Amino acid sequence: MKRFRVLSVLLAAVMLLSLAGCGKATIEGDWVLVKETWGDGSVWSKEQLEDEGIAETYHIEGDTVSYTCHVLGQDIKFDMDLVDNGDGTYTFKIGDIVFATAALKKNTFSYTVGEGKDASTMYFERQK
Question: Helix-strand-coil percent breakdown of the chain, rounded to 5?
Answer without folding.
Answer: 20, 55, 25
